[in-house]
UniProtKB/TrEMBL annotation, chain A:
Any Pfam family the entry gives: Adaptin_N
Biased composition (Basic and acidic residues): 805-822
Chain ranges of the Clathrin/coatomer adaptor adaptin-like N-terminal domain: 44-595
Native source species: Eragrostis curvula
Protein name: AP-4 complex subunit epsilon
Function noted in UniProt: Subunit of novel type of clathrin- or non-clathrin-associated protein coat involved in targeting proteins from the trans-Golgi network (TGN) to the endosomal-lysosomal system.
Quaternary context: Adaptor protein complex 4 (AP-4) is a heterotetramer composed of two large adaptins, a medium adaptin and a small adaptin.
PANTHER family in the cross-refs: ADAPTIN, ALPHA/GAMMA/EPSILON (PTHR22780)
Biased composition range(s): Polar residues: 876-893, 903-926
Top-level taxon of origin: Eukaryota
Coiled coil: none
Automatic annotation (TrEMBL), chain B:
Region of interest (Disordered), ranges: 1-49
Main location: membrane
Protein name: Adaptor AP-1 19 kDa protein
Cell location: Cytoplasmic vesicle, Clathrin-coated vesicle membrane; Golgi apparatus
Keywords, in A-Z order: Cytoplasmic vesicle, Golgi apparatus, Membrane, Protein transport, Transport
Pfam families for this protein: Clat_adaptor_s
Membrane topology: Peripheral membrane protein
PANTHER family, per the entry: ADAPTOR COMPLEXES SMALL SUBUNIT FAMILY
Length: 970, 261
C-alpha cells in the first residue's frame, strides 16, 4: 500500500510536474535536495533568484505562471535569501480578481513583509475592498492577511469592517474577525478599547470555534484588568463544566479528550480571575475537582490539562482539597519516566511550594535526580526550582551547584541569568562574609562581564563596610582574607574587567592595612594589572588610583616611599595618555608625592571609603562669601525659573542630550520648556549618588567640601576650601566643570565611560583557572562513597534544616533523610489541616516547614514575637550563637550546638517575620529581600542595634541596592 | 544511522496518543522504497551555535521570581514562530509571528535579539537565518529520550520529531509546553488528513498548502481552531474554488484555442 502510494506520487510528479508545479520548480527543489553544502545551496538559489528577477520583469508573463514564480520566490526567501525585488509582485497579485491568485498573493505578502514595511500601504486598500466581498473565502483571506499586515496607522481604515464582520453569518469569518480584532488590540489597545465589549458578546456565540477563539482576547484583557471581568467567572466556570462534560460537538475532541485546548484556555483565564479572590475561587473548586477526577494521565493532552489545573490551583485562593489533588498529580509527574512529564512536574512543584513549602519534602530524591540528569533542559528547570526554594539554610549547597553548572556552560544568555541568580541568592541569604566573598569571586571570575556592574559595586561596599557589626576584628580579618585571595587570583590571565576593578580597589584600600604585604609588593602587582590591560582604561584608572592610595597611606604613616621604576614608567605613560581621566589621576599621584604627611592625611584619610558624606545642600558655607559679594555690589542671584526672557541653557542642553540619546524621531510637537529647578536643589539632587554605591563617580567638590568640614569643623569653611584648592591647583581638570578630583574615591571616571569600558571587554572565561578550581572542587565533592548516599546527603542539605546535617557522616545523613519526612509528617499532621486553612488569613500562614528540621521550633509561633525580640535585645549579646560568627564554623560545631542555634534561628523567624510576610516573600524579590534580611536570624539583634544607631545618626540607607543595605542594617 | 527518505510518512504512528514524544517518531524505513529524491547528504559541518557576540547583561533584569501569570508585560503572542526543519538542517517551512507587548513594541520583537536593525528586510532575513541556524544546532543534536523542550534565549522551543522532520514552535517562557506539543501534533494530524499519510516530500512541494493549513490553525500566534473537521472543511472549500478556477481557466483557454483555429 505504502509502495503503491509512493509510486503513484512519482507517476503524478513525472507526468504533470509534481503537485501542480512546473518542471522547473521540481528541478529546483531536487537540486537543493542534492546540494552537498550550504554554499552550493546558496549558489543554486542565487541563480534561481537571477532567473526569477528576469522572468518577473517580463510584462507578458501569464497570471498563472506568475503565481508559480511567486511561490518560487517564497521558497527562496524561506531558505534565507533576500528576494525583496519580488515583493511588489506579491502585492500586485493581491489585487487579482481570481481567488486562487489572490490567496497566493496574500500568502506571499504575509510571508514577505510585516506591518512596518512601506509596501503595506499598497495592500491596505485591497484588504479593505476584500473585507466587503460577498465571497466569504475572500473575506477570510483578507482577515488572515490583516492580522499580519495592518499596523497602528492603517487600523482605522479596516476597523469598521472588521467589527461588522463579527456578526457575519459564516462562523469561520466571525472567528477570524475576533482574532483580527484581538491582534489589533495587541498592537494598539487605545484604538480598539471602545470595542472590547464585542468580545463579551462573542463569548455567547453559537459556534464553539468562535467561542474558543474569543477566549484568546479575553485572556489578554483579563490579564490586564481582572476586576472588570469578575462577573464572567460564573460563565467561564459553566463553559468549562460543559466542555468537561462533553457537551461540545465531538469534532472538537482530541485524542478522546473533550475540547482540550478550550479547557486549557479557560483554566488560564480562571487562574487569573481567581487569584487572591476567595469568592471567585469558590465557584471554581467543584469543576476543578471534576477535571482532576476525570484526568487522563495516560495521554499527553490529558497531562497538559492536569498541568494547567495545577497552575490554576496554585494561582487561585488555596483550598486544601485542591492542593492535595494537585500535589498528588505533581508527584505522578515527577515519578514518570518521561522527561517531559518530569519537567512539568518540576515546574508544578515550583508553583506549589509557594503555597505550601512542605510539598517539596517528599520529592527530594526526584528533584536531585532531575538535577543530575544529563538533559540540560531538565537541569535548568530544576535550578529554577531550587532558586525558588532557597533559604538561608540551604543557600550554600544551591549556590555552589549553580556556580559549578555555570562554569561549564557556554550559552551566554543562560550564563548571565544563572550568574545574576547566584548573586541575588548570595546577597539575600549569605550565611557568612567569607562565603559571600568567595562566591562572588567565583561568579566574577567566570561570568564577570555578564553580570551587572552594580553587583561589583556592592561587593566592594560589603568589603568596605563589613557585615555591619561593631566587631572590627572580624571585618579586618575579612578584608585581609579578601586581599589574600585577590593577590592569588590577580596574576591569572583573562580576568573580566569588572572583577579586576574590584581587585584593584580592594588592594588599594586594604592591601597594606594588616601589614602582611609591603607597599612595594602590592604596587608591583597593581602595575602588572595596569600593564596587562592596556586597552581597558577603566581598569587602568582603578589601578592607578589604588597605587595612589597605597602611596598616600605610606606617606601618612611616615614612611619614605620610593617609586618603583615600573611604577614610574606607568605614571609617565598615563600622564601622557589620551584619556584625560587617566592623565588627571597620574598628575594627582605626582602631586601627592610632593606633599607632606599632614597634607596627605587630610587629603587621603585612610580607610575613609565608608564615611558618610554629608552634603550641605543649601551651600550654607558660602553664605558669608555671598554676603561679602553682595555688599560689594554684586547682583543677587535669581533662580532660573524666575528669570524671564532668558533661555535657560541648562535646560536646553539637557533636552538636547535627551534627544540624542533617544536616537529616534519625535513626531509630537515640542513641549513648552519646563521651568528648571533652582540651582540649589538641582545640585542637591546631583548629590544623590554620594549616598549611593561607594565607587561611583562623585562630584569632586562635595567630597572636598566634606573633607574640609571634617578637617576644620569649626573654622572658616571658605578659607579652608581655598587652602585646599591652592594646594591641589595643578590637579584641576583642564576641561569641563572646574572640579577637583575626589582623591579618596577609587574612580572619578564618569559612569558612562565605565559602562562602555565594562562592556567592551570580551569575556574572559579564564578557562584554565576555572579548570583547576573546578577539579579541586569536584574532588572534594566526590568523597561520598556511594552515589545514592551522596544524593541523599545532598537532598538532606537541600531540603533538610541545617547545613550541619549535610556535614554529618553518610550513614547518619541517610537516616535523617529517611527520618526527616516521616518525623515531620507526624509533626505536620497535627497541624496539617490547620496550616492549609490558615493560609486563608494572610497574617497567619503555616510556619515555614522546610526550615524546621527540629520539631521543637514549631512551638515558636505561638509566642509573642515582640516579647521575643525584647528578649533577644537584652541578654543574648553574650550568647556566641547569636553573634555573627561565620557559618562555616557553626556548621562544624557539634550537633547539639547546631540544634540549639537552629532553635534560636527559626524561633523568631516563624514568629515575627514569617507571620507577617508569609509566602509573599517568595513571590516578590523586593519583599523577599526584607524577609531575607530578617530571616538571617543571628543578625537580628545586631540589626536592631545597628538600626537604632543609624537612626540616631540620622542616616537612612538609600541607593540602588536596598537588599544589601537591609541585610546589613536590618 | 540510516538515511531517512523524504517520502516516508511523517505520521504512520499518529494514532497512538498514549505514546510520547520522540518515541513515536521512530522511523520505519523498511516500508518505503524508491524515493525520488536521493538521500540527502550528511549535514555539512556547521559552526557552533553561539556565534553572535551579544550583550545580555540587560536581559537578566527580568525577575523570574515574580508571579508569572498576571504579569502584564508578558502579554504577547503565544507562539512566536513555527519552524520545520529536516534532520539535515534544511528548512521546510518558517512562519514568523511578530510578538508585541503592549508597552515596548519594537524592543520585544524576537529578531531584535539577534540584530539591532531589523528595519530593513535583508537584515531581518539574516536574523531569521541566524535563529534557524542556532536552533537547528540546538535541536538536532538532542538525544531521543530527552525533553521535547529547549530553553533558548529566554524563550522556550517545543519541538517534536516526525520521521525525518522536526516541527518546532517557539513560545514564551511561561506557557504550557505540553499544550504546544499537542498543537504541533494537531497540525500534523490535519496535514496527514489533508495529504493522506503526509510525508516530507508533500511538504516540500506543497509548502504553500502547508502554509494555508497553518494559517487556518494559528492566527497571529494563537490557536484559532481546535476542530480538525472545521479546518478540513475550510481548506476543502478553498481548494474546490481553486479547482473550479482551474477548470474555468482551461475551458476559457479551450474556447480561445478553438476560436483562434
Amino acid at each position: 500500500m505504502e509502495q503503491l502510494r509512493t509510486i503513484g506520487r512519482e507517476l503524478a510528479m513525472g507526468s504533470q510536474g509534481g503537485w501542480g508545479q512546473s518542471k522547473e520548480f521540481l528541478d529546483l527543489v531536487k537540486s537543493i535536495g542534492e546540494a552537498r553544502s550550504k554554499a552550493e545551496e546558496d549558489r543554486i538559489i542565487a541563480r534561481e533568484l537571477e532567473h526569477l528577477k528576469r522572468r518577473l520583469a517580463d510584462p507578458d508573463v501569464p497570471r498563472r505562471k506568475m503565481k508559480e514564480l511567486l511561490l518560487r520566490l517564497v521558497y527562496a526567501e524561506m531558505l534565507g535569501h533576500d528576494a525583496s525585488f519580488g515583493h511588489i509582485h506579491a502585492v500586485k497579485m493581491t489585487h487579482d480578481e481570481a481567488l486562487p491568485l489572490k490567496r497566493t498573493g496574500y500568502l506571499a505578502v504575509a510571508l514577505f513583509i510585516d506591518e512596518r514595511h512601506d509596501l503595506v500601504i499598497l495592500v491596505v486598500n485591497t484588504i479593505q475592498k476584500d473585507l466587503r466581498s460577498d465571497n466569504y473565502l475572500v473575506v477570510c483571506a483578507a482577515l488572515t492577511a490583516a492580522c499580519r499586515l495592518i499596523g497602528e496607522e492603517a487600523m482605522p481604515a479596516v476597523l469598521p469592517q472588521v467589527v461588522e464582520l463579527l456578526a457575519h453569518p459564516k462562523e469561520a469569518v466571525r472567528k477570524k474577525a475576533v482574532m483580527a480584532l484581538h491582534r489589533f488590540y495587541q498592537r494598539s489597545p487605545s484604538s480598539v478599547s471602545h470595542l472590547v465589549s464585542n468580545f463579551r458578546k462573542r463569548l455567547c456565540d453559537n459556534d464553539p470555534g468562535v467561542m474558543g477563539a474569543t477566549l484568546c482576547p479575553l485572556y489578554d484583557l483579563i490579564l490586564e484588568d481582572p476586576n472588570a471581568y469578575k462577573d464572567l467567572v460564573v460563565s467561564f466556570v459553566n463553559i468549562l463544566k460543559q466542555v468537561a462534560e462533553r457537551r461540545l460537538p465531538t469534532s472538537y475532541d482530541y485524542h478522546q479528550m473533550p475540547a482540550p485546548f478550550i479547557q486549557i484556555k479557560l483554566l488560564k483565564i480562571l487562574a487569573v480571575l481567581g487569584s487572591g479572590d476567595k469568592q471567585a475561587s469558590g465557584h471554581m473548586y467543584t469543576v476543578l475537582g471534576d477535571i482532576f477526577r476525570k484526568g487522563d494521565t495516560a495521554s499527553n493532552i490529558g497531562n497538559a490539562i492536569l498541568y494547567e489545573c495545577i497552575c490554576c490551583i496554585s494561582s487561585i485562593f488555596p483550598n486544601p482539597k485542591m492542593l492535595e489533588a494537585a500535589a498528588e498529580t505533581t508527584s505522578k509527574f515527577l515519578k514518570s519516566d518521561s522527561h517531559n512529564l518530569k519537567y512539568m512536574g518540576i515546574d508544578a512543584l515550583g508553583r506549589l511550594i509557594k503555597i505550601n513549602p512542605d510539598i517539596a519534602e517528599e520529592h527530594q530524591l526526584a528533584v536531585i535526580d532531575c538535577l543530575e540528569d544529563p538533559d540540560d533542559t531538565l537541569k535548568r528547570k530544576t535550578f529554577e526550582l531550587l532558586y525558588k526554594m532557597t533559604k538561608s539554610t540551604n543557600v550554600e549547597v544551591i549556590v555552589d551547584r549553580m556556580i559549578e553548572y555555570m562554569i561549564n556552560i557556554t550559552d551566554h544568555h543562560y550564563k548571565a541569568e544563572i550568574a545574576s541568580r547566584c548573586v541575588e541568592l548570595a546577597e539575600q541569604f549569605a550565611p557568612s562574609n567569607q562565603w559571600f566573598i568567595q562566591t562572588m569571586n567565583k561568579v566574577f571570575e567566570h561570568a564577570g562581564d555578564l553580570v551587572n556592574i552594580r553587583v561589583a559595586h556592592n561587593l566592594m561596599r560589603l568589603i568596605a563596610e563589613g557585615f555591619g557589626e561593631d566587631d572590627e576584628g572580624a571585618d579586618s580579618q575579612l578584608r585581609s582574607s579578601a586581599v589574600d585571595s585577590y593577590l592569588r587570583i590577580v596574576g591569572e590571565p583573562k580576568l573580566p574587567s569588572s572583577f579586576l576593578q574590584i581587585i584593584c580597589w580592594v588592594l588599594g584600600e586594604y592591601g597594606t592595612a594588616d601589614g602582611k604585604y609591603s607597599a612595594s609588593y602590592i604596587i608591583g602587582k597593581l602595575c602588572d594589572v595596569a600593564e596587562a590591560h592596556l586597552t581597558d582604561d577603566t581598569v587602568k584608572a582603578y589601578a592607578i588610583s589604588a597605587i595612589l592610595k597605597i602611596i598616600a597611606f605610606e606617606i601618612a604613616r611616615g614612611r619614605k616611599i620610593d617609586l618603583l621604576p615600573e611604577c614610574q614608567t606607568l605614571v609617565d605613560e598615563l600622564s601622557a595618555s589620551h584619556s584625560t581621566d587617566l592623565q588627571q589621576r597620574a598628575y594627582e599621584l605626582q602631586a601627592l608625592l610632593g606633599l607632606d604627611k599632614h597634607a596627605v592625611e587630610s587629603v587621603m584619610p585612610s580607610d575613609a571609603s565608608c564615611e558618610d558624606i554629608e552634603v550641605d545642600r543649601n551651600l550654607s558655607f558660602l553664605n558669608s562669601y555671598v554676603q561679602q559679594a553682595l555688599e560689594k555690589g554684586a547682583a543677587p542671584y535669581i533662580p532660573e525659573s524666575e528669570r524671564s526672557g532668558v533661555i535657560s541653557v541648562g535646560n536646553y542642553r539637557s533636552q538636547e542630550q535627551h534627544e540624542t540619546s533617544a536616537h529616534s524621531l519625535r513626531f509630537e510637537a515640542y513641549e513648552m520648556p519646563k521651568p528648571s529647578l533652582p540651582v540649589v536643589t538641582a545640585q542637591g539632587s546631583m548629590s544623590m549618588p554620594t549616598t549611593d554605591l561607594v565607587p561611583v563617580s562623585e562630584p569632586g567638590y562635595y567630597k572636598e567640601d566634606h573633607q574640609v568640614s571634617r578637617s576644620q569643623p569649626s573654622g572658616d569653611a571658605l578659607s579652608g576650601e581655598f587652602g585646599v584648592k591652592l594646594r591641589l591647583d595643578g590637579v584641576q581638570k583642564k576641561w569641563g566643570k572646574p572640579t577637583y578630583s575626589s582623591s579618596s574615591t577609587p574612580s572619578s571616571s564618569t559612569s558612562s565611560q565605565q559602562a562602555s569600558n565594562g562592556g567592551s571587554h570580551s569575556d574572559g572565561g579564564g578557562s584554565t583557572s576555572s579548570q583547576t578550581r573546578e577539579s579541586s572542587y569536584s574532588s572534594k565533592r566526590q568523597q561520598g562513597t556511594e552515589v545514592s548516599a551522596e544524593k541523599q546527603r545532598l537532598a538532606a542539605s537541600l531540603f533538610g534544616s541545617s547545613a550541619a546535617k549535610a556535614d554529618r557522616k553518610v550513614h547518619a545523613s541517610r537516616k535523617t533523610a529517611k527520618d526527616n519526612p516521616s518525623a515531620e509528617k507526624v509533626a505536620v499532621n497535627n497541624t496539617a489541616s490547620q496550616p492549609v486553612k490558615e493560609q486563608v488569613i494572610p497574617a497567619a500562614p503555616p510556619p515555614d516547614l522546610l526550615d524546621l528540621g527540629e520539631p521543637v521550633s514549631s512551638s515558636a509561633p505561638s509566642a509573642d514575637p515582640f516579647s521575643q525580640l525584647e528578649g533577644l535585645l537584652g541578654p543574648t549579646s553574650a550568647s556566641p550563637v547569636v553573634s555573627e560568627t561565620p557559618a562555616s564554623s557553626s556548621s562544624k560545631t557539634p550537633d547539639l550546638m547546631s540544634i540549639f542555634s537552629d532553635d534560636v534561628q527559626t524561633g523568631p523567624n516563624s514568629g515575627s517575620t514569617e507571620s507577617t510576610l508569609g509566602d509573599a516573600s517568595l513571590l516578590n524579590s523586593q519583599k523577599g529581600a526584607t524577609a531575607g534580611a530578617a530571616k538571617k536570624g543571628p543578625s537580628l539583634q545586631d540589626a536592631l542595634q545597628k538600626d537604632a544607631t543609624a537612626r540616631q545618626v540620622g542616616v537612612t540607607p538609600t541607593g540602588n541596592n536596598p537588599n544589601l543595605f537591609k541585610d546589613l542594617l536590618g | 544511522m540510516k538515511n531517512t527518505p523524504a517520502t516516508s510518512p511523517l505520521s504512520s504512528h499518529i494514532s497512538s496518543p498514549s505514546q510520547f514524544g520522540p518515541d513515536r517518531t521512530t522511523f520505519h524505513s523498511s516500508a518505503t522504497p524508491g524515493h525520488r529524491l536521493p538521500p540527502p547528504p550528511p549535514p555539512p559541518p556547521r559552526p557552533p551555535a553561539s556565534l553572535i557576540q551579544l550583550q545580555f547583561a540587560g536581559s537578566a533584569a527580568k525577575d523570574p521570581r515574580s508571579v508569572r501569570r498576571g504579569d502584564l508585560s508578558q502579554v504577547a503572542a503565544m507562539i512566536n514562530f513555527v519552524l520545520l526543519i529536516s534532520r539535515q538542517g534544511k528548512v521546510r517551512l518558517t512562519k514568523w509571528y511578530s510578538p508585541y507587548t503592549q508597552k515596548e513594541r519594537t524592543k520585544c520583537h524576537l529578531l531584535h535579539l539577534i540584530s539591532d536593525d531589523i528595519s530593513s528586510m535583508s537584515s531581518t532575513i539574516i536574523a531569521c537565518r541566524e535563529v534557524i541556524r542556532e536552533l537547528s544546532g540546538l535541536i538536532l543534536s538532542r538525544g531521543p529520550k530527552l525533553c521535547n523542550f529547549v530553553e533558548w534565549r529566554g524563550y522556550k522551543v517545543v519541538y517534536r520529531r516526525y520521521a525525518s522532520l522536526y516541527f518546532c514552535m517557539c513560545i514564551d517562557a511561561d506557557d504550557n509546553e505540553l499544550e504546544v506539543l499537542e498543537i504541533i501534533h494537531h497540525f500534523v494530524e490535519i496535514l496527514d488528513r489533508y495529504f493522506g499519510s503526509v510525508c516530507e516530500l508533500d511538504l516540500i512541494f506543497n509548502f504553500h498548502k502547508a502554509y494555508y493549513i497553518l494559517d487556518e490553525i494559528l492566527i497571529a500566534g494563537e490557536l484559532q481552531e481546535s476542530s480538525k473537521k472545521n479546518v478540513a472543511r475550510l481548506i476543502a472549500a478553498q481548494d474546490s474554488l481553486v479547482e473550479a478556477a482551474k477548470e474555468e481557466a482551461s475551458s476559457i483557454s479551450n474556447i480561445i484555442a478553438q476560436a483562434t483555429k
